[in-house]
Batch of 2 targets.
Target 1
Amino acid sequence: MIIHLKENIDEIEAVKLAEQSRSAYYKKHGQYVLITSSSDKELPAALESVADEYFVMSSDIQLASRQYRAQVREVQVGKNVQLGGAHDNTLLITGPCSIESKEQITQSANLLKELNITTLRAGCFKPRTSPYSFQGLGMEGLRMLAEVREEYGLNIITEVRDATHVDAVIEYADIVQVGSKAMYDQGILRTCGKANKPVLLKRHFGATLQEFVQAAEFILSGGNEQVMLCERGIRTFETKTRFSLDLCGVAYLKEHTNLPVVLDPSHAMGIAYGIPDLTRACVAMGVDGLLIETHPTPKTAKSDAAQQLNHDEFRALYRTLEPIAGAIGRRII
Ligand code: PEP
Ligand code: MN
């Protein structure tokens, strides 16, 4: 149950009420919001005199539910990019899997500038499957990304791998990416809940849709309203592709949640030849964002080499997207 407290309830009282009712709580536009388990169907007696309004929810998909908010939440990226809300924007995010050098990321930034794309991705802290693979440039990479942001006026998205650098990523990034493997890390989720930056939460490859959206609830219930859900493929019995892109799941998320949805065909397919067709299918799904990995020289990439498009392949793909977006009343930004 979600309970909006009356505006005259101050922090001391709100905290006391939250403890008494074992609720999560946060403050929104001067008003405290308490969230109890969805098994609560009656307003607790102690809250009757202090509740402004309340919402009985059918599952623990609560703050993220369309039942609570009919419209998709608006997300503000940097100073001048919006998605969700009343915007029919599909935000195209591109860049390498990992930042590898200033030269490499400058080439990526030039590609974005040429195509008027606003949001550059690149991982600094890489959640690799092997401890012996390239682990990312870490803080050095974050600082390079910050330089590129200043030089080119781009927004930056980069990922959190673990608790050791979550604050630094929140400070430097315009969008904080919580990687697939970090989706279950409640320390990261709770820290992101207190951040004032949008968060792109990637679905763990073994997570059900319910678990995925409940992970988003950890961020939302901390008071951060800017959460995007990213489908990036789940593990199935199939081995010819890296993962299976769950477009049925995307249809579910669009129907039942109020969070913007971003599709990442790169990690799902895992092989470059499939990415252009899949990206076009993703645009046709009417999603709020796309995440496509590109690299100036994919063969030399230090992570995810097989799936990254080279810049000419990306240019050719890019030209085909706008008509598809236009056909369903959307705009690629
Ligand atoms: C990535 O975006 O480079 C990445 C590691 O993605 P995922 O967390 O989905 O594997
Ligand atoms: Mn990658």
Note: Residues 178 and 201 are 5 Å apart (CA to CA).
Target 2
Amino acid sequence: MTTLLWFRQDLRLDDNPALAAAIRRGGPVIPVCILDPDGEGDWPPGGAARWWLHHSLAALAGALVERGSRLVLRQGPATAVLDELIAETGATAVLWNRRYEPASVERDTVLKSGLKQRGIAAESFNGALLFEPWEIHTGAGTPFKVFTPFWRACLQRGGIAEPQAAPTEIPAPPRWPRSDDLDRWELLPAKPDWAGGLRQAWMPGEAGARKRLTAFLRHGLTGYETARDRPDVDGSSCLSPHLHWGEIGPRRVWQVVEYAAAETPGLRAAADAYQRELGWREFAAHLLAARPEMPAEPLDRRFSDYPWETDRKALRAWQQGLTGYPIVDAGMRQLWQTGWMHNRVRMIAASFLIKDLRIHWREGEAWFWDTLVDADLANNAFNWQWVAGCGADAAPYFRIFNPVLQGEKFDPDGAYVRRFVPELSRLSPKWIHKPWQAPAAVLAEADLDLGRTYPRPIVDHGDARRLALAAFQALPKA
Ligand code: FAD
């Protein structure tokens, strides 16, 4: 009756339905994680994700040991590795929580039927979403294309299950199969070690996720509905990498936010706003399931003909946070240093790449994929297409963010820019978002030598905007 429990993006013990089912089967449970980058199709984990995965697996292994269990690590094509383990352990079942990326769905479907044909019980569960993508549909039975009716349908459906507590003990097999040494997986960066900022910013693993959630409930939920747009005040939960890796489940997050709103009068609006953000995560997964081409192809096919620029120098300046637009540069440096960027600034930086530089959104998507600790196929592709104006329910193309006005509105004192672009730290709020307009005396006073210590804008926003609109207007009409 031995069960293999296959961990993937559900690196937790709390509210883990596959784990609960494995224990219910009654026999020994062997937790397994498989490193299989080729099984991820075109999207093997990027650098920041690999760093996170290493630490998250170390945390999970520790938590399993505390419950009398272990984490068995193996490398190779998942199907072959599971076959090997079945042969070695005599396991009669393989259980896992579902993933929704096209390559995973394809592999898991074949795997499941293959196991079943050989008399091995194979079962998958929902540990990652509030609603399965196929549970929510329009009256005509088709997937939604617009967020608001999608979310209304989700809320009307309701019935979000109560999260299940983590087990106190996990039955162990009499003999453990061999495990790889995590260090041998070489997920951490080789020299140079660029991950110092990540180590400072994050605590991967279930305990780190809980800590973030608790801190957010104490200090962040009140006023979230407005503070979430302010990169200078840490107004959001920073749970995205923990949710991506499944170190905390959305049902648990939903439940504690519900409890907080029920206990504290006045928190309802903040709770609704927060839960709506979880809704965008659901919507992105829903769309990816309906349109598996989303990471590679514009959902609005007119954009296939958009005349993208291929200016590698400009792309490099954007990646390095050297565009001369302080809010964009602060965001790109926050990303490089910490593996994360505030949502408002993600939108501004993405808009700058796509519309001011007219560089393909896929370049931005790929850079984020490699550098974000929360890199998530559905969320990343969905949001890049949203900013580009070619996605479902996307921002209209002609709404082009002005990086100066956005900076002045959402980082009014310039605290965020000062934190990540220290060469501008001595500029006053009046000039910090447009240093090239500052009088020479102000620049001298701030010790700033434009073009030398900080770049001048690599494009003029007004000109870039006109060119972008002209390119858009030349596209075929809808
Ligand atoms: P909170 O405001 O605390 O929100 C709570 C949770 O809701 C988040 O953790 C996240 O899971 C979800 N969420 C919030 N906003 C969005 C959104 N717009 N779309 C989908 N889910 C959302 N998010 C990722 O998780 N992975 C990505 O790869 C990713 N790439 C992005 C690329 C671009 C160009 C843009 C504009 C946004 C991207 N986002 C991505 C969405 C969003 O920026 C992050 O989810 C958010 O900044 C995470 O911070 P938080 O946990 O503090 O969010």
Note: The chain has a mean pLDDT of 97.
